[in-house]
């Protein structure tokens, strides 16, 4: 079978979704599925420097994957990213595929691919990426309501399946009034190669004493992720006399990042907080293995790739209930799930700062959780089976989980 994944952009500035698409396609190909990606060359502030209108071998962790890049039409309106070239490409190439796997809602490329797939009787799936959560739907509410009425509801209702990463995301699909079968599968992460010197190397890089615990925030710098709440929490921890240094790694809009940096000055945290910008590859692995705990106080995350990466690296996590793998983390005792308010955050982080033994215990639990549930190979196998069901036009159960999948 031949599968095409469609996503608006593979830009690193888009956060986790591009990494999900690329790693998932790599895992599918490793399991014997012929999978490719079609996308645009959108990036900020300049387009990705990639060959256009041809299949290219694009680098990912552990090798390369085939990607078609089509030019987008500037200016790009947030995630909508219109591309007339993508439309033309779809009319010519979509009939070559057995199934289309669309990533994202309220965006041109998956909308276009779904419409053309329907015209050609090609089954397609949709990944809602947490965009049907109450918090997400409340953002740009009027635009989303209009887009839903005109386009998105039809795309969702006529899909072969909707891929959710947690049961709470599947519930959001039902609350939205969609009756399409859901496939609930988590996403995967790669565990970094063990680096026993990471803790010392990271402190040397940031010129920190060996005994200073490092609090890591690794995500887009965006108000959805609530870095302001983390900074306010850190200010309260400093006032209580706790020793720590926080690293807020990620990119964001320049004005927003400047606001965060001003807030650091206002809260008298300049000596306690670092902003290294976008961190990838070995530098990212060093952060994950050299830090002591991970914090993400996000309003909403459909999965939280950064959280799963922290778990895989053995970091205890402090997160909020809007991250939809929160129940997994609570059940595995891999960290604390607390309300998105300063005082609960202070209490949770203070506990971990004060106890290396507790950090080690929760971190070990999280690492085991990631190894058993969040590996790409564990995700790719049942997904490939689900693809076969859909291509064969077999009726899917209303709510499908990996243990329900079998080919008979």
The total count of helices amounts to 15
Question: Mind describing the biggest β-sheet?
Answer: 9 strands, mixed
What would CATH call the class of the largest domain?
Answer: Alpha Beta
Mean pLDDT: 93
Helical amount: 40-55%
Descriptive account of the structure:
The protein has helices spanning 16-30, 84-93, 108-119, 134-138, 141-157, 167-175, 198-205, 227-239, 254-266, 281-290, 305-312, 326-332, 342-354, 356-373, 376-391, and strands at residues 2-9, 34-40, 55-60, 63-70, 99-103, 124-127, 161-164, 182-184, 214-218, 245-249, 273-277, 293-296, 317-319, 335-337, 399-400. The protein has 408 residues and is of the alpha/beta class. It has two domains: 2-188 and 375-404, Rossmann fold, CATH 3.40.50.2000; 198-373, Glycogen Phosphorylase B (Rossmann fold, 3-Layer(aba) Sandwich), CATH 3.40.50. The mean pLDDT is 93.
Task: Provide the fold topology.
Blueprint: E1 2-9, H1 16-30, E2 34-40, E3 55-60, E4 63-70, H2 84-93, E5 99-103, H3 108-119, E6 124-127, H4 134-138, H5 141-157, E7 161-164, H6 167-175, E8 182-184, H7 198-205, E9 214-218, H8 227-239, E10 245-249, H9 254-266, E11 273-277, H10 281-290, E12 293-296, H11 305-312, E13 317-319, H12 326-332, E14 335-337, H13 342-354, H14 356-373, H15 376-391, E15 399-400
Parallel strand pairs: 1-2, 1-5, 2-4, 5-6, 6-7, 7-8, 8-15, 9-10, 9-12, 10-11, 12-13, 13-14
Antiparallel strand pairs: 3-4
Helix pairs in contact: 1-15, 2-3, 7-10, 8-13, 11-14
Which tags fit this structure?
single chain, 408 residues, alpha/beta, Rossmann fold, 2 domains, nine-stranded mixed β-sheet, six-stranded parallel β-sheet, 15 helices, 18% strand
